[in-house]
Design goal:
The protein has helices at 17-26, 41-49, and strands at 3-8, 34-38, 54-58. With 59 residues, the chain is of the alpha+beta class. A 3-stranded antiparallel beta sheet has the order 2-1-3, with no helix packed on it. Helix 1 crosses helix 2.
Length: 59
């Protein structure tokens, strides 16, 4: 299965609680933190919901 690297580039301060929880579920808690995750449909849906705050790279 493919992997993607997601990096939090914008702060979640002053964002809706639902977006903050999505970032927490992805394992991103600080600005410029990165995580490698499997590209499952569930993860890709989470990324799509907060993509305005992320940088996504395929591995």
């Amino acid at each position: 299965m493919k992997k993607v690297k997601v990096t939090l580039v914008k702060s979640p301060i002053d964002r809706p609680e639902r977006q903050k929880l999505t970032l927490k579920a992805l394992g991103l808690n600080k600005t410029n933190s990165s995580k490698e995750v499997e590209a499952t449909p569930q993860i890709l849906g989470m990324i799509r919901k907060v993509e305005h705050m992320l940088k996504v790279e395929e591995l």
